[in-house]
Amino acid sequence: MTESSREKPEIDFPEGEAPTTLEITDIIVGDGAEATAGSTVDVHYLGVEFESGEEFDSSWSRGESINFPLRSLIAGWQVGIPGMKVGGRRKLVVPPAQAYGAGGSGHPLAGKTLIFVIDLLGVS
Protein backbone atom coordinates (compact mmCIF):
# COMPACT_ATOMS: atom_id res chain seq x y z
CA MET A 1 0.00 0.00 0.00
CA THR A 2 1.37 3.41 -0.86
CA GLU A 3 1.13 6.38 1.44
CA SER A 4 -1.34 8.11 -0.87
CA SER A 5 -3.77 5.18 -0.77
CA ARG A 6 -3.91 4.85 3.02
CA GLU A 7 -7.24 5.16 4.72
CA LYS A 8 -8.13 7.97 7.09
CA PRO A 9 -6.75 7.00 10.50
CA GLU A 10 -8.82 6.51 13.61
CA ILE A 11 -7.58 7.95 16.88
CA ASP A 12 -8.38 6.04 20.05
CA PHE A 13 -9.80 8.16 22.84
CA PRO A 14 -6.83 9.13 25.03
CA GLU A 15 -6.61 8.02 28.63
CA GLY A 16 -5.23 10.00 31.53
CA GLU A 17 -4.16 13.60 31.74
CA ALA A 18 -3.20 15.66 28.72
CA PRO A 19 0.58 15.90 28.36
CA THR A 20 2.31 19.21 29.05
CA THR A 21 5.06 18.58 26.47
CA LEU A 22 4.89 17.56 22.83
CA GLU A 23 4.57 13.80 22.32
CA ILE A 24 5.84 12.34 19.03
CA THR A 25 5.04 8.74 18.08
CA ASP A 26 5.93 7.09 14.77
CA ILE A 27 3.10 4.78 13.71
CA ILE A 28 4.75 3.91 10.38
CA VAL A 29 8.36 4.84 9.66
CA GLY A 30 8.77 6.11 6.10
CA ASP A 31 11.69 5.37 3.82
CA GLY A 32 11.59 8.41 1.53
CA ALA A 33 13.00 11.91 1.72
CA GLU A 34 13.30 13.38 5.21
CA ALA A 35 11.49 16.53 6.28
CA THR A 36 13.63 19.31 7.75
CA ALA A 37 12.67 22.50 9.56
CA GLY A 38 12.89 24.46 6.29
CA SER A 39 10.84 21.97 4.24
CA THR A 40 7.58 22.46 2.46
CA VAL A 41 5.52 19.35 3.18
CA ASP A 42 2.64 17.60 1.46
CA VAL A 43 0.54 15.83 4.10
CA HIS A 44 -2.73 14.17 4.86
CA TYR A 45 -3.76 14.72 8.47
CA LEU A 46 -6.49 14.24 11.03
CA GLY A 47 -6.88 16.46 14.09
CA VAL A 48 -8.93 15.74 17.21
CA GLU A 49 -9.29 17.46 20.57
CA PHE A 50 -7.63 15.54 23.42
CA GLU A 51 -10.38 16.27 25.95
CA SER A 52 -13.42 15.43 23.83
CA GLY A 53 -11.98 13.16 21.16
CA GLU A 54 -13.94 15.26 18.64
CA GLU A 55 -12.49 15.71 15.16
CA PHE A 56 -11.90 19.38 14.34
CA ASP A 57 -10.13 19.03 10.98
CA SER A 58 -9.14 16.41 8.42
CA SER A 59 -7.61 16.65 4.97
CA TRP A 60 -9.08 13.19 4.29
CA SER A 61 -12.57 14.61 4.80
CA ARG A 62 -11.82 17.27 2.18
CA GLY A 63 -10.52 14.62 -0.22
CA GLU A 64 -7.10 16.19 -0.82
CA SER A 65 -3.78 16.58 0.90
CA ILE A 66 -2.37 19.97 1.81
CA ASN A 67 1.01 21.44 0.96
CA PHE A 68 2.66 24.20 3.00
CA PRO A 69 5.96 25.38 4.50
CA LEU A 70 6.55 23.99 7.99
CA ARG A 71 7.60 27.42 9.26
CA SER A 72 4.03 28.69 8.74
CA LEU A 73 2.46 26.05 11.02
CA ILE A 74 1.85 25.68 14.73
CA ALA A 75 4.97 25.07 16.82
CA GLY A 76 4.00 21.45 17.51
CA TRP A 77 4.21 20.68 13.79
CA GLN A 78 7.42 22.71 13.36
CA VAL A 79 9.06 20.54 16.02
CA GLY A 80 7.17 17.29 15.42
CA ILE A 81 7.52 16.81 11.65
CA PRO A 82 11.26 17.35 10.99
CA GLY A 83 13.00 13.97 10.93
CA MET A 84 9.90 12.28 9.53
CA LYS A 85 10.38 10.52 6.19
CA VAL A 86 8.03 10.39 3.20
CA GLY A 87 5.78 7.34 3.51
CA GLY A 88 5.62 7.70 7.28
CA ARG A 89 2.65 8.20 9.59
CA ARG A 90 3.24 10.05 12.85
CA LYS A 91 1.05 10.95 15.82
CA LEU A 92 1.61 14.28 17.55
CA VAL A 93 -0.01 15.18 20.87
CA VAL A 94 0.37 18.94 21.05
CA PRO A 95 -0.16 20.92 24.28
CA PRO A 96 -1.78 24.39 24.03
CA ALA A 97 1.55 26.24 24.27
CA GLN A 98 2.67 24.56 21.01
CA ALA A 99 -0.75 24.71 19.36
CA TYR A 100 -3.01 27.79 19.52
CA GLY A 101 -1.97 29.19 22.89
CA ALA A 102 -3.81 29.64 26.16
CA GLY A 103 -7.57 29.81 26.41
CA GLY A 104 -9.12 33.18 25.73
CA SER A 105 -6.84 34.13 22.83
CA GLY A 106 -9.75 34.18 20.42
CA HIS A 107 -8.92 31.03 18.43
CA PRO A 108 -11.57 28.29 18.88
CA LEU A 109 -8.84 25.74 19.69
CA ALA A 110 -6.98 27.97 22.15
CA GLY A 111 -6.32 26.29 25.48
CA LYS A 112 -6.82 22.81 24.01
CA THR A 113 -4.42 19.90 23.71
CA LEU A 114 -4.64 18.55 20.17
CA ILE A 115 -3.89 15.14 18.65
CA PHE A 116 -2.83 14.89 15.02
CA VAL A 117 -2.11 11.85 12.86
CA ILE A 118 -0.04 12.96 9.89
CA ASP A 119 0.93 11.05 6.74
CA LEU A 120 3.93 12.60 5.01
CA LEU A 121 3.36 12.35 1.25
CA GLY A 122 6.11 14.63 -0.05
CA VAL A 123 8.87 17.05 0.87
CA SER A 124 10.37 19.92 -1.09
TrEMBL record:
Chain segments annotated as transmembrane: none
GO MF terms held by the record: peptidyl-prolyl cis-trans isomerase activity
UniProt keywords, alphabetically: Isomerase, Rotamase
Xref: Pfam families: FKBP_C
Catalysed reaction equations from the record: [protein]-peptidylproline (omega=180) = [protein]-peptidylproline (omega=0)
EC number: 5.2.1.8
Keyword field contains Isomerase: yes
Domain PPIase FKBP-type: 38-124
Organism superkingdom: Bacteria
UniProt KW Isomerase keyword: yes
UniProt xrefs under PROSITE patterns: FKBP_PPIASE
Similarity annotation: Belongs to the FKBP-type PPIase family.
Official protein name in the record: Peptidyl-prolyl cis-trans isomerase
UniProt source species: Lysinibacter cavernae
